[in-house]
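Example 4.3 (complexes with small molecules)
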Amino acid sequence: YENIKYEVSEGIGYVTINRPKALNALNMDVLTDLYAAFTEIEADETVKAVIVTGEGKAFVAGADIAQMSQLNALEGREMMIMGHKVMNLIEAVEKPVIAAVNGFALGGGCELAMACDIRIASEKAKFAQPEVGLGIIPGFGGTQRLARLVGKGMAKYMIMTAEMISAAEAYRIGLVEKVAAPEELMDEAVKVAKTIASKAPIAIATAKSAINNGFDMDMKSASKFEIETFTAAFGSEDKTEGMAAFLEKRAPEFKNK
Ligand code: CAA
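Answer. The structure with acetoacetyl-coenzyme A bound is encoded below.
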């Protein structure tokens, strides 16, 4: 990959957006690399959890404004469709994805963090949806995911004012799940990734799917969906192993089967 770094170590996939000179702004090339990397991650059984972060002082400072300034409405639409494809893939991939937000998470950067399952922010991180100041609105799913995460009122406040908020404020409103000292951010993300990776992979994938898909359904349909996804996990070999290990007072050995 030219615009991201991707490596796997001890079952954890590390995706680092690597355009530090442009504060990791997402242009079409970065989006294409991200899509390819998550396609690879989806197919790789050795990857149990993923951490997404940014090289240098930013997580991602948004979609690339220099590139967008050259696009007409139809071309801009194409770029946003690509952004949605990437975010939807990250959200749907059957593995836990953790955003380790090391710095600016603005516009498309905040949207990338929101497409991940869990967000851990450095105390130095800053969040905003600054699009209205550029004459546009969030276009990688921000109007939808932000409202779902922090509620309609706070989403409107952030999107309409374009105000930049601190990690502490992001934590207060439920936009991030944890805040860590800058030097401890990656350790904290790895700790969470390893905790999740130690559980039954089918159960983790099933829980992710039940929460994500159920969130968009009415309660009755969501309950039915939970029963179906629960049954899939209940039929797994890892259910037999997990329960046997508990009863035999030993650690389980999950096989992702
Ligand atoms: N697109 C393209 N280039 C960007 C960029 C972006 N989103 N953000 C930063 N850069 C570039 C700057 O142009 C600058 O390049 P040069 O060195 O060639 O001049 C370089 O990165 C460093 O940035 P600054 O000099 O501005 O750094 P700073 O520390 O003074 O400011 C900042 C940091 C406050 C994050 C500022 O860069 C900024 O406001 N960036 C834009 C943030 C933004 O508006 N993002 C939303 C984009 S729209 C969007 O994302 C739409 C969508 O929903 C998909």
